[in-house]
Amino acid sequence: MLAGASTGTLVVFGLIAAALVLFVTEAIPNDVTAIGIVVALAATVLTTGPIAPTGSRSCSW
Description:
- This protein has about 60 residues and is an all-alpha fold.
- It has 2 helices and no strands.
- It has helices spanning about 5-25, 30-50.
């Protein structure tokens, strides 16, 4: 699908896709979906580390 994409990138794309589906279908109330996505993205950063652009010299992680 996405050649050369890291696992963290694919997880974030998956979360975005899930958010879109949940917002459109309103299977869960929109405010709960929004908070859940923020929490899920924060947990993703904690487990996979921040995603920095390749070749970035200003990042100190």
